[in-house]
């Protein structure tokens, strides 16, 4: 984020630079020097033949030269080349601002994804720990059954292996929790530390209704679409700037100041000088560089058009996909919840049947495994629901009304 903010500062300075190009450049300066010309040149012969009136001071040889004054230059922007370049810079600056806003939206969404993933892992860990407790109790029952010669060692081994597998799953989830916490810490720019959170109400989160038939104005709220639109505006202006390079440029130069061979004469009115000149310059031969710049500007404009179309199409597809996910995952969550409820009842039933020797130990084992998997899947579906809602927030440019 800080890197992007510095890019915005660079774009802002570019606007200032472009704005200054179509304003007059005024400089103040002074100088001092000495000049000794050859007597066998035009200036030397003229100096030798100057007749000095009696009583006047002769010119010094060599001739010092002192000057101070103001100079100004100004390119008349009659083709709006410089003004269009400044407008293009403004559009690029605003585009960089929208790029920052788009990054903020993505950053918020990524933080939300990681946060709810962390809560989901907490719930999965709790489910696994409860299953470890249940499986440990069942294992003790199986051991007692084996001692009573009602089951074989095979049943004890199968249940013990299942318990060890569940314990191993616990350690995997704990590692994922550490990594997800550190991912969150990285996203907010801090060193690893525990993340404060509330995980108990994860399954009770209720989603607000989202109505289909979203107006196109909501898509325009996306920062990446506004960014692409501003980039397109900038490329249009760049074409005008490149086209104006074929036209003649008109410049005005002016100088005013004081100049004398002795500093004491600089304050005298007779030492004042001034000049005013205008020039007209147009490319005549070998305009290949100007043509190449013009063709490149046109190609970049076409690129910007395609990028704008792609950005809008991508935004629309994202919205449709996330709407579909929200609806389907809501139905999936309800179905899986019913499955979890049935399998939870089946655990109690299978345990009771096994104790009364009316069910095989494999039925108990499979029921526990299926119940654990269904509960884990229920958490994953809830996580997908949360992701779909977060992605909808991102797809609509950071929220909606």
Q: Any descriptors?
A:
about 400 residues, alpha+beta, Outer membrane efflux proteins (OEP), 4 strands
Tell me what the structure shows.
- This protein is α+β, with helices and mostly antiparallel strands.
- It is about 65% helix and about 10% strand.
- The chain has 8 helices and 4 strands.
- A 4-stranded antiparallel sheet has the order 1-2-3-4, with no helix packed on it.
- The model is unreliable at about 50-55 (pLDDT under 50).
In short:
The chain has 401 residues and is of the alpha+beta class. It is 64% helix and 12% strand.
Name of the CATH homologous superfamily of the domain at 78-247 and 286-395: Outer membrane efflux proteins (OEP)
Distance from N terminus to C terminus (CA atoms, Å) equals 26 Å
Judged by helices, strands and strand pairing, the structural class is alpha+beta
Secondary-structure element pattern, one letter each: HEHEHHHHEEHH
CATH architecture label name of the domain at 78-247 and 286-395: Up-down Bundle
Q: What is the number of strand segments?
A: 4
Which strands sit side by side, in order, in the main sheet?
1-2-3-4
CATH topology of the domain at 78-247 and 286-395: Outer membrane efflux proteins (OEP)
Residue-averaged pLDDT:
85
Helix content: 55-70%
How is the topology of this model organized?
Layout: H1 2-21, E1 25-35, H2 42-48, E2 63-76, H3 81-147, H4 153-187, H5 216-219, H6 223-244, E3 249-260, E4 272-281, H7 288-355, H8 361-395
Antiparallel strand pairs: 1-2, 2-3, 3-4
Helix pairs in contact: 1-3, 3-4, 3-6, 3-8, 4-8, 6-7, 7-8
